[in-house]
Write a structure and sequence with these properties.
Length: 288
């Protein structure tokens, strides 16, 4: 199978960036940072990690202080042993923001990261400057999507090998040629950390309805979002439809919807130039 010539290291070449860890309420949290200006925090999806934004950091760092973090229990961030609900993710995110002494943030979250960004924005509006929800996964909590996400994530970690990790990644893409050996190896190295075998059960709890029902998209909390919001949907997202995104737009005040064509669940990777332009223009208040 022919793979595109995409390299994480090459995507980051030519810019000054740093990787470091901060203590966020006792959780050692991995961060990659580049650029100067207004802070822009990028949040990955379930089972994801910093590398999900490798194709965006360089371009976005010309306009913002880009901060990409491994969320609670993910990547190389600490993995405390309790269920990772949106409340726990939100508390951890707030602790990171305070550790970095940030007052106002542009948020851009993919899938679970978008869901978390919105949840955080409804509870801590004072910190949120703009909100970009990038393919905010499984908007309507479809049981078949929850099952596939849970089963594939557990399998990729508990039976970690090239095939199971690749299959989990390929689920995210419209064009699976973007799933390079380097990307598979990067995730395999994360998933084979000894503590991940426990953490993965805490990661997938939001794919169980009894937990998820407490955090579904409803007007009771979405109407509390005050920041300008852009819902960015792809035309081949495997977790939600454009109609689902239109439903979400109705729930969030002051929100717009834009469609990226020819991409799956990671438009920031499959269509990086388009994604980066949309992100910059939206956060700067320019016409999207």
């Amino acid at each position: 199978m022919v793979k595109y010539d995409v390299s994480i290291w090459n995507e980051l070449s030519g810019i000054a960036f740093k990787q470091y860890f901060v203590d966020a309420n006792g959780v050692n949290t991995r961060i990659v940072e580049a650029g100067e200006g207004e802070p822009l925090i990028l949040l990955h999806g379930i089972g994801g990690h910093v590398e999900a934004y490798a194709r965006n950091i360089k371009s976005l760092s010309k306009h913002f202080r880009v901060i990409v973090m491994d969320m609670l229990g993910h990547g190389y961030t600490g993995k405390p042993d309790y269920p990772y609900t949106l409340d726990e993710y939100s508390d951890h995110l707030l602790a990171v923001i305070k550790a970095l002494n940030i007052e106002k943030v542009h948020f851009s979250g993919e899938s679970l990261g978008g869901w978390l960004s919105a949840w955080f924005a409804a509870r801590h509006p004072e910190y949120v400057k703009t909100l970009l929800l990038n393919t905010p996964g499984n908007i309507k909590g479809k049981p078949e999507v929850m099952k596939k996400l849970k089963d594939s994530t557990l399998n990729a970690v508990l039976e970690a090998n090239n095939e199971t990790v690749r299959k989990r990644l390929e689920f995210l893409f419209y064009d699976t040629n973007f799933v390079t050996e380097e990307l598979v190896e990067s995730r395999y190295n994360i998933y084979t950390q000894p503590e991940f075998k426990t953490a993965v059960h805490n990661i997938v709890v939001l794919q169980d309805w009894e937990v998820r029902k407490n955090y579904t998209w409803t007007p009771e909390w979405t109407h509390k979002i005050t920041a300008p919001t852009l819902i960015l949907m792809s035309d081949h997202d495997p977790t939600a439809s454009i109609e689902d995104a239109e439903y979400l737009q109705q729930l969030i005040p002051n929100s717009d919807l834009q469609i990226v064509e020819g991409a799956g669940h990671w438009p920031q990777w499959e269509k990086p130039e388009e994604f980066n332009e949309i992100q910059v223009n939206f956060a700067k208040g320019l016409k999207v």
